[in-house]
Amino acid sequence: MQSSNKINPLSKNDARKTARSVWKDFLQDTVRGNLLLENMERFVSTLSRDSRILAFISMNDEPDIMSILEKNSFKIYIPFFDRAGNMDFSLYIDAGIQQCAVHRGPYGIMMPEKEAERLALPLDESDTVFVPSLASNPNGCRLGRGGGYYDRWKNRFSNAFIAGMMPSELSGLNFPEENHDLHFSSVITEKGIVDYK
Q1: Model pTM?
Q2: Residue 128 pLDDT > 60
Q3: Which of 8, 30, 135, 163 has a beta carbon 3.0–4.6 Å from 173's, enabling a disulfide?
Q4: Angle at Cα 127 formed by Cα 104 and Cα 92, nearest 5°?
Q5: pLDDT given for residue 84 in this prediction
């Protein structure tokens, strides 16, 4: 698939269609899915226990990263947002203990209750951000679902380590990047880790 896109990049809309199709097949392949989670576990084992982790509660069409993260002693923050495009992060788990209740928010995404402890900024090199993603291009540019929530945090994420998870064939999908797009430090796939920094 990638070789046919090397010369003529896909539009972002076409890249999203392609990525969703690949994800659908990938999530039905338990062998490849388990390999991805094993690589995620290896990656997480290298992180400092003092790291703050920004992550998300996976939807049905995403790998369950929280089950791996919550086994560790990290402070884990998850996003809450509204349909107007605003997003922030709240403390969800600290040292394996859940710190706030969650509810289903816009788009069916699980979010913390409003009274949860907010993330203190700025982020630094010890912080790791797991960003929900459909794909990345050969330069590590992220393809999201199109809402722009994470892209609007680009400057606030600039000092942190940005990680994604996706099927290997989506870690170099050829699509154009724009100035506002978020870039990965690394992407975890079922075949290993692709480093961009």
Answers
A1: 0.92
A2: yes
A3: 135
A4: 30
A5: 83
Which domains, from first to last, does the chain contain? Answer: 2-195 (3.40.50.10420)
C-alpha distances (whole Å) from 53 to each of 29, 89, 91, 130, 170 are 28, 10, 10, 8, 24
Among all chains, which residue has been given the structure tokens 């809402």? Answer: 147
| Helix, strand, coil percent content, the chain, rounded in steps of 5 | 25, 25, 50
Q: Looking at residue 100, what is its pLDDT?
A: 92
How many whole angstroms separate alpha carbon 179 and alpha carbon 127?
23
Of 84, 170, 83, 166, the C-alpha closest to 130 is: 166
CA of residue 21 relative to chain centroid, distance: 18
DSSP state for residue 197 in the 8-state scheme: -
Q: Residue 51 — left, alpha, or beta (φ > 0 → left; ψ -120 to 50 → alpha)?
A: beta
List, for residues 49-68, the tens digit of each pLDDT value.
888 999 999 988 899 999 99
Q: Give the pLDDT band of residue 142 (cuts 50, 70, 90).
A: very high
Q: Tell me the one-letter amino acid at 127.
A: D
Q: CA angle 100-105-109, nearest 5°?
A: 90
Q: DSSP character for 173?
A: -
State the average pLDDT over residues 107-115: 85
The CA–CA distances, whole Å, from 133 to 117, 148, 172 equal: 25, 11, 13
Residues 32, 35: Cα–Cα separation, whole Å? 5
